[in-house]
Write the structure tokens for this entry.
Amino acid sequence: MMKNQIIAIFSILFLAMVLSAPVSGDTFEFPMNFTRYIFNEVTFNETNELPNVKINIYENETLIDTLITDTKGEDSTIIPQFSETNYTWTADKFNYEQETGEFMLNESDITIEFEMQQKRPSLFTVDYDNIGVILVIILLVISAILLFILGYPAFTSVITVIIGFTFLLSGVNILLSVLVIIIGTFIAFIPRKEMKGGNV
């Protein structure tokens, strides 16, 4: 009895296979996509070798990658090529104007060169990439204030001028640097007797 049941099951399976076998001329669609993708290297190069530039790459307004330029102003990524896909990009850095552009891939690696334009300097704009310099300047400012209170205009003047040149040489802010140097020079001409804590 069991043997007859097994034979019946295999007979049904065999019949199902025969009925489902492909016939000449039939067309089948496979769910898998066997398209051969081509991967291209896209390199971004800031012509002034500006580091720490943030580059966002978009595919049809969807963010697909973010790059940060190195000390040579470069960074690169690998992007799969799709037919007629339009890629756009933006480049941002504090105290610089945003740069934008677009590109398409054509079965070859590409290099995109761009130049960041610094914003017009403002008196109170500080480049936070130089945070280490800012901390040193804060310590110098505290020292200058203490010396000013204790009645030592000459030392206060020297430290203030040093602060100004530190701003200037580090490129933190040109206008603020000049202002601090002028203030430091002016302090040197304040008579000590007019300083709080000074001797008459």
